[in-house]
Amino acid sequence: MSHTRLEPIHDSPPKLGDVIVLLIRAGVLVCLVASVSLALHSTFSKPDRWFPLPEHIRTVQNASVIDNGPTNISHILFGIAGSANTWHDRINYSMLWWNPNTTRGFVWLDKRPRILHADTSIPYQISQGWTRFRHVHSASAVRIARIVYESFKLGLPKVRWFVMGDDDTVFFTENLVTVLGKYDHNLMYYIGACSESVEQNVMHSYNMAFGGGGFAISYALAAQLAKIMDGCLKRYFYFYGSDQRVWACVHEIGVPLTREGGFHQFDIRGNPYGILAAHPLEPLVSLHHLDQLHPLFPNQTPIYSMKKLISAYSIDPARIVQQSFCYDHNRGWSISISWGYTIQIYTTLLIAADLQMPLQTFHTWRSWKDGPFTFNTRPMSSDPCQKPALFFLDNVTNGRSGSVTTYKRYEGKEAKCKTEDINHAKVQKIKVSALKLDPEYWKNVPRRQCCKLMNGGSIKDGSMHIRIRKCRLQETITI
Ligand SMILES: *[C@@H]1O[C@H](CO)[C@@H](O)[C@H](O)[C@H]1NC(C)=O
Ligand SMILES: *[C@@H]1O[C@H](CO)[C@@H](O)[C@H](O)[C@H]1NC(C)=O
Ligand SMILES: *[C@@H]1O[C@H](CO)[C@@H](O)[C@H](O)[C@H]1NC(C)=O
Ligand SMILES: *[C@@H]1O[C@H](CO)[C@@H](O)[C@H](O)[C@H]1NC(C)=O
Ligand SMILES: *[C@@H]1O[C@H](CO)[C@@H](O)[C@H](O)[C@H]1NC(C)=O
């Protein structure tokens, strides 16, 4: 509108009568613009007049202010982004972590599913009102971005956090509760993690919580988001993803991303082994893209692998994939344990700074390149004598004095090192004992736990025993 009006109306200098007519026109135009902007202002500053929020939300907010007890699973409302056509296949991932007795939330579908899993106990909702939004890419991105708004609008009592995830996201809910428990849900928080692949963050944002890894919105932030969400969806119609729309909208409120390294978008190709064998010192919160990646355990299905990992997680949630190092100084070995998942034995002495660096067993998401990633990696050597011997979780037992996990040697098809002494030593099995890690551990500045070879590192019937324990104050992990 304004564009054409700014162009000159006359070629020759205007006469006095023309000037008056012009002034009147200008005056009318100014009035028109003023009244239109006034109308727009009043509608956008009170959008709940358009989409009224239920009355009881006020009381809910009041109740959540009063209840200051520690955050537990009942305070989280999950919103899983699903679709009617794929839910039937994807539900297996959600069923791995969804406990029908305690988990609250819904999978949000575009329409009523034709077939439902017989024993499904995850309730679903049909997304409403999303088709009227303009979009350049997929309409489902609009629908999924709106889940946080629709979840909030349900007005369910005692919700402190709205946690969004995909239908192929696996949450470790005990650790999620530990992480969210550090933050006050009455303040505005946007919690998650960016992508592992630099190219993805460059393309989207380093300040965006990637949706597949899942993200958490505090009640206070959800209340503000609900007011402006539909306006954002109109403004950001040209965006690609749903998480990008939420990101843009959250940044209109001025809330930055609070990074938690346990959320894993897993924007990588190949084998995620390296990351989970050298996880950062943060509780494991989520995994994503499991059917796009190699299974976590060799020669197993993705679902079986997850069940295996969860069998260890369920007896010591705070410790899952936490790394400890020890050295066998007599043999000159370095041993790296990722509790509940894997152990690596190197027949050389590697410094702690190297052991905590993930082996690059994967490529970037978009370009399938060797990097860059948002963390350092070290290459997996092609020399079989430099490669670590790998052990994977086999059995989990829980006793009064902590857990015992056993790890079995994995013999891949790759060439073996001829001179490698671990082959002569014939370690086939490693037994690891550890006390249960208190979730309170994550409230303080973490320190990696130490490990100790038991029985002087003796190997009996192909089996070694290692104990994980708190490091002593003066203790260091030194070659
Ligand atoms: C919560 O509600 C009670 C009455 O129902 C009121 O007295 C109190 O001031 C409210 N608190 C807040 C923080 O709004
Ligand atoms: C969670 O905490 C609330 C109080 O804030 C309590 O009423 C409820 O029983 C707790 N639920 C679980 C599962 O611990
Ligand atoms: C999901 O699990 C069921 C059994 O629980 C199985 O029959 C089905 O094939 C699985 N679906 C996929 C896509 O893996
Ligand atoms: C849910 O509760 C029932 C009854 O208390 C119990 O038998 C079942 O094992 C529970 N399920 C899970 C997944 O905890
Ligand atoms: C795990 O170990 C326990 C105790 O040694 C044993 O009873 C159980 O059968 C083992 N489970 C598997 C799957 O090997």
From TrEMBL:
This is Uncharacterized protein. The chain crosses the membrane at residues 20-40. Pfam families: DUF604 (PF04646). Keywords: Membrane, Transmembrane, Transmembrane helix.
